[in-house]
């Protein structure tokens, strides 16, 4: 189909739930994508952080193709090899104890919430179920993860939301301690608030929250849906912060483009969810977990070690243009005048650079971790053209 034909059929047959940009993507290689007419785009968005190893990476293509030719699905009533291998690798690399595989970030966070509540009710009683999350957080689009999300803009239309969440300002330890009651079972947070504006949490605050949780037998839940799988320069952001969470969720980058998520639990709570307490039909799907193993293979080829260097390069060049940046690794926010970020992103896309917004004042960059210097420089040239008019 042509781009216009795609637009027309989408409008006729697809629920219009997305504020799409007028771009159709047909194919790509690495961090360069093409529309049906052949126009090239530099990908600084990677499908909202999903294409961790870029588009059509040879190891990804080989792993997915080979597994598709052997077995696509068997359900969790039976054992399949790719998921078991991936679970072992994730545990060894993260220091966590066991894994539950899901299909998305929201589903991973749902599993993490269920695990925390069962841990607490098993040890205490059915009233100890409240979870403290942070203002400006984003945890998903399901009813429960919307309730966990600390942004009022998402709290509309779908009442009643799931009860049992309290929201406190980020980096305010006193507020968190004041919100904790005898009904609190866990604290849940992103170490870099992605949708909220690419806002890293203060390291001292994070360590203090970890200590407070341990002192009060509250599970520390870390949402790494966007920060995980190398995005911030370590396999998981919590490793860069030097903490030991009880439960970690991830998704997006782990599947390299296929729907895959995971809940990783430490020894403190890895056996809480037993048979019949949690499940998902497509969890540990063989093709998706084969893709996950390919992602880890690529990161082990030296890509993970390059993430911080690439992020520093991009940020330095953007700051030379006169704009402040924030973030970690290849999760970067460019600070622009509040309220102008959406229109600016639209202009960038028109000029051939795919990026997205975050919060009220940030252009969010989430390029593939495999992005080349040439692709970064081509993207930076477009950024300079749009942000500076070529004058800086």
Provide structural commentary.
By secondary structure, the protein is α/β, with parallel strands linked by helices. The protein has helices spanning 3-13, 46-49, 58-68, 81-94, 105-123, 143-148, 173-179, 203-215, 237-241, 286-320, 341-350, 373-388; strands spanning 27-29, 32-34, 40-43, 98-102, 130-134, 165-168, 184-189, 192-193, 199-200, 219-224, 247-250, 261-265, 325-328, 331-335, 353-354, 356-358, 362-365. A seven-stranded mixed β-sheet has the order 4-12-11-10-7-5-6, with helices on both faces. It has a four-stranded mixed β-sheet with strand order 1-2-3-15. Helix 3 (58-68) runs antiparallel to helix 10, helix 4 (81-94) packs across helix 10 (286-320) and helix 10 packs across helix 12. The longest helix is centred in the last third of the chain and has 35 residues, at 286-320. The radius of gyration is 21 Å and the shape is globular. The two termini are 40 Å apart. The mean pLDDT is 97.
